[in-house]
Amino acid sequence: MKIIWQRPNPEMPKAEALVRVTAAYVIAVFAAGVVLALIQFGPVSGMLLADVVATLVIFGFSRWHSNSSFYDPFWTVIPPLIMLAWMATGDSSSVVREFMVLGLILYWATRLTTHWAYYWPGIQHEDWRYPMLRERSGGSGFWTDLFGIHLFPTVQVFLGMLPVYAVTHLGDSPLGWLDVVAFAVTFGAITLQMASDFELHAFAEKSQPGDILDTGLWSLSRHPNYLGEIGLWVGLALFGIAAYPAGALWCSVGAVAMILMFRFASIPMMEKRSLARRPAYSETIRQIPMLIPRIGGRQRR
């Protein structure tokens, strides 16, 4: 397929849009690799710098295409690469733990990235939150796009990946019961997120305007997909603590930051939108817990 690198129009075929996104990420990862090769920082600071450089490359493509959803795959494309790079330079004494974590991250990242690619309508579609955030910022939309939509999530995910650094570079503790718990939490969380996404899309295909998804996993939690995402980062934190108990505090920072972001930013935005589009959603809020399922199920009328 011949790709002409001009500003896109809403009629661009989805296949061409995906090629552009793929090319953007190849260039971003190459730029990050150059940074790692040329600038001799420590394994954490150097990786953070490379991560930021890759983000800035994607930010450039987002601005060029007037679509910040170019950044959406970054959340899942970059973490496996960070872990592989740390594995290549680390000297952990527990190879089994390393491959447990790598397998789980690949499970999560592959599932979510393919999910995004399959359901992304194309270059004409941008996550509804991005224009809203830019509009709220008034005349500082550029900086909101750079810091709020691109750099903030990059730093957030990097904090969530710090336990992986503990696993690959500091993991001198033998495999133990906490690793089993961490594996169960992480695998269960990823599977929960996958199952709830499948239910959501099945509902969206047959629902009418105003309908509310309150069956299956969505009858136990208003946001089971977010609960699964939070569980992933909690599971990684547990792996980091199992590998390097002395770093329990900083291994937990990313998971705590994720919990706070979803609880006080992502979920309130989603619920405000749901209430505006579906007035009956207020009853759903009364009956179904926000995240953690209630013992005994949903509250009865």
Question: Which SSEs are present, and which pair or pack?
Answer:
Layout lengths: L13 H25 L4 H23 L8 H16 L5 H25 L9 H8 L4 H30 L6 H30 L17 H20 L4 H30 L3 H7 L14
Structure description:
This protein has one domain (14-287). Helix content is 71%, strand content 0%. It contains ten helices and no strands. It is globular and about 55 Å long. The termini are far apart.
Low-pLDDT residue spans: 1-6
Backbone CA Rg = 20 Å
Order of helices and strands: HHHHHHHHHH
What multimeric state do the chains show?
Answer: single chain
Helical fraction: over 70%
Helix- and strand-based class?
mainly alpha
Number of helices: 10
Total domains? 1
Global geometry: globular
Give the N-to-C terminal Cα separation.
Answer: 57 Å
The count of β-strands is 0
Mean pLDDT: 92
Estimate what percentage of residues fall within beta strands: under 5%
Tell me the major beta sheet: none
Quick description:
The chain is mainly alpha-helical.
List keywords for this structure.
single chain; disordered N terminus; 301 residues; mainly alpha; 71% helix
